[in-house]
Amino acid sequence: MPRLVVVSNRVADPRKTAAGGLAVALGEALASSGGLWFGWSGHVVAAGDGSDAAPKLHRAGPVTLATLDLPQADHDAYYLGYANGVLWPVFHNRLDLAELDRSDLDGYRRVNRLFAQRLAALLRPDDLVWIHDYHLIPLATELRALGCQQRMGFFLHIPLPPPLVMAAIPQHEWLMRSLFAYDLIGFQSETDVAHFARYVHNEARAEQRENDVFEAFGRSVRARAVPIGIDVDEFQRLGQGREAQDMLATLHRQYAQRQLLVGVDRLDYSKGLPQRLRAFRRLLQDHPENRGKAVLVQVAAPSREGVTAYADLRAELESLSGAINSEYGELDWMPVRYMHRAVARMRLPGLYRAARVALVTPLRDGMNLVAKEYVAAQDPVDPGVLVLSRFAGAAEQMRDALLVNPYDTQAVAEATQRALNMPLDERQARHALLLAGIREFDVHWWHRHFIDNLSDASA
Ligand code: GDG
């Protein structure tokens, strides 16, 4: 069996419980097959201070972790600059936040070239190479330039925007051409595949050979939707753990007379947090019976604090949650509990289970794993209700959630009111269908399906 080589911006020890969705999913995928996981160490060093060294290798069970440090200037240009200042906002339809005139492209290319040089030295001829996310789009091109002929797959965790939005990036052609150095491109949703097909048809006059094979730039690539899932069993086991159970008991005790709503997100403008708070305020305004009763616990885990747009968002959320609390709060009831802190992963299932409603209302999201975790954590006998943005990739699969337009404050408030008052039999029926879906298309399916397709993809 060929060895699996996973490449992502960050690498995490699969034996430890990690915070982010990508780290959890990749750790899980590698733990079952073994292999090599290559990426940035998370350390930034002064120029010339070890960044030219070979990757550090650590053994973590069946997985070898290979990590590189990055020089400060390269990290700033590659990670903060091009990846998170240009690609992230544009791919999430936020042209207003994209720093398109910054000259960070060189740093982005430099880091991709550095990754390629260091990785090439570790590759074996029959490895399967699986590269992840927008940080590393040109990595296969760089590897091919060094003579690497292994099968290479790319998975985009974030959405691919429509062609006209993509075209706002000055280097859009170069980025899309880079994708043709892969054998397989996996997207989160059919919408993303459709955007890809339209782009390559309009801009590169690609021939679509079979359903999912595109020919352009002298190469062919297979592109298909391979939506990511969670490890449902692992998450449910976590829910049986002491920390989750303690969390659940504490919340039940403290909020015995209340109805809890929950939001768990990285603090990111794609997640629609101000819009969500405004919808919650609208709920209190239009449906006064929720006053003194409904409490929204919003966890906003710190993220990318070096990027300006994130600091602005933080200030906006603090002021908005303060305003709602001062407008509606009572001595014994605060409507919004907003935390700019991460919650330990072991406790998350308890928080989800205590909540009658989850508000997962991103303005745009590749998938959104919180939606799936919330469903996995529910008690099937008395489950909570998922209110889900139609602009999350997850909405293509989770049709039995209450789907909403997150820009429409009143519609989200009404869906929340409906969720809070949904009869038990409807809650159970919706939950059973949602749970069956996330079980069928779980993280094992994602991993297996991608690797099977990559193994079959013609080079
Ligand atoms: C990208 C795409 C796609 C969040 N807050 C805390 C915490 N989390 C965990 C959640 C979940 C993960 O982080 C977030 O996953 P998401 O899918 O919601 O979002 P992104 O981080 O934006 O991930 C996304 C994903 O990649 C995978 O392909 O679904 O669309 O944007 O697992 O539980 N975990 C802990 N404390 C927190 O406060 N421990």
Give a nutshell description of this structure.
With 459 residues, this protein is of the alpha/beta class.
Ligands, deduplicated: GDP-alpha-D-glucose
Portion in strands = 15-25%
Number of helices: 16
Radius of gyration: 22 Å
Written account of the structure:
The chain is of the alpha/beta class and 459 residues long. It folds into two domains: 4-229 and 443-456, 3-Layer(aba) Sandwich (Rossmann fold); 232-440, Rossmann fold. Helix content is 43%, strand content 20%. It has 16 helices and 16 strands. It has helices at 21-33, 72-91, 105-120, 139-145, 163-166, 172-179, 190-204, 232-240, 242-254, 273-286, 308-328, 348-354, 369-377, 409-420, 424-440, 443-456; strands spanning 4-10, 35-45, 56-60, 63-71, 128-132, 151-155, 184-187, 207-208, 213-216, 219-225, 259-266, 294-301, 336-339, 357-360, 385-389, 402-404. The chain has a ten-stranded mixed β-sheet with strand order 3-4-2-1-5-6-7-10-9-8, with helices on both faces. Strands 13-12-11-14-15-16 form a six-stranded parallel β-sheet, with helices on both faces. Helix 10 links the parallel strand 11 (259-266) and strand 12. Helix 1 (21-33) crosses helix 16 (443-456) and helix 2 (72-91) crosses helix 3. The longest helix is centred in the last third of the chain and has 21 residues, at 308-328. The radius of gyration is 22 Å and the shape is globular. The two termini are 18 Å apart. The model has no long low-confidence stretch (mean pLDDT 93). The structure holds GDP-alpha-D-glucose (GDG). GDP-alpha-D-glucose (GDG) is lined by residues 19-22, 24, 157-158, 228, 264, 266, 299, 301, 342-345, 348, 365-370, 373. GDP-alpha-D-glucose binds next to helix 1, strand 11, strand 12 and helix 13.
